[in-house]
TrEMBL record:
GO terms for molecular function: hydrolase activity. The keyword Transmembrane does not apply. Keywords: Hydrolase. The keyword Endoplasmic reticulum does not apply. InterPro entries: Iah1-like (IPR045136), SGNH_hydro (IPR013830), SGNH_hydro_sf (IPR036514). Residues 10-225 form the SGNH hydrolase-type esterase domain. This is SGNH hydrolase-type esterase domain-containing protein. Pfam families: Lipase_GDSL_2. It comes from Immersiella caudata.
């Protein structure tokens, strides 16, 4: 039977689709694959434009039930909401009402094709939104109004926190991590004194300009912060073991392979060409 690698799946929208790209010398997906090399396959299943309703429709095509000889879903990272949080517009139909969004997240987490694998599940909050920058770009491409609002998007991130607590899965608070960085690197800004960064009411983008270049998608700096949240969540299987460099390999280290004695003659100079 062929060796199968357990899987880490990144299931989400364009924020995961873009995680595979190399930007300013960094790729989130590649960094994660390097961390778990020889132990897991990292599968990027990010779909630009998808909301949670779309995700539920395609889920059975992406996650088959366990099968003899098939791979096991070991870790599942879920990141949807940036599109669900769109405001309803004649030029945009991605909006999913907040209550339906929460129900859809529950539906993903509890789907039989997922639960059959018994994976470790991580629910990720959508990141902050720079509505100031997004307004410029949305109007430029023909929308009559901005497609997303800072305050509305923040409620969808809060919904993720609620669902994670309710379902007993691990929360990865990307919204907080990026907003904390933006605040820390925006001189003189005090969030206690008014609207959030990126909110037109406050009129200040601050360091969100670097974290969200188009107001929505992540820069390399943001993906590095994101990876910093994910890195300690993966690898407890081998971390701290006496020989953690090799523990968990699907196929053995060459020095410990069961066929090593069979091939010992290859090391004999008399057999070398």
């Amino acid at each position: 039977m062929a060796a199968t690698y357990p899987q880490i799946v990144l299931f989400g929208d364009s924020l995961f689709q873009g995680a595979i790209e190399v930007t300013d010398g960094f790729s989130f997906t590649a960094a994660l694959q390097s961390q778990v090399k020889r132990r897991f396959d990292v599968l990027n299943r990010g779909f630009s434009g998808y909301n949670t309703s779309n995700a539920l429709k395609v889920l059975p095509e992406i996650f088959p039930p366990p099968a003899p000889g098939g791979p096991k879903l070991e870790y599942l990272f879920i990141l949807f909401g940036a599109n669900d949080a769109c405001v309803p517009l004649p030029t945009n139909h991605q909006h999913v009402p907040l209550a339906r969004y929460k129900a859809n997240l529950r539906g993903i987490i509890t789907h039989p094709n997922i639960t059959a694998h018994k994976p470790k599940i991580f629910l990720i909050t959508p990141p902050p939104l720079d509505q100031i920058r997004l307004t410029e770009l949305d109007l430029a491409i023909g929308h009559k109004a901005v497609t997303r609002h800072t305050k509305v998007s923040a409620t969808y991130s809060e919904a993720v926190r609620e669902v994670a607590a309710e379902q007993g899965v691990v929360l990865v608070d990307l919204w907080k991590a990026l907003m904390d960085r933006a605040i820390a690197r925006t001189p003189g800004f005090d969030p206690a004194n008014g609207p959030l960064l990126g909110d037109p009411e406050g009129g200040l983008r601050g360091h969100l300009e670097r974290l969200l270049p188009d107001g929505l998608h992540l820069s390399a700096e943001s993906y590095r912060i994101f990876y910093g949240l994910v890195e300690p969540l993966v690898g407890s299987e081998w971390a701290g073991t006496p020989d953690e460099a090799k523990v968990g390999y699907v196929l053995p280290d060459w020095r410990e392979a069961p066929w090593l004695d069979e091939d010992a003659h290859l090391a004999d100079p008399a057999h070398q060409i």
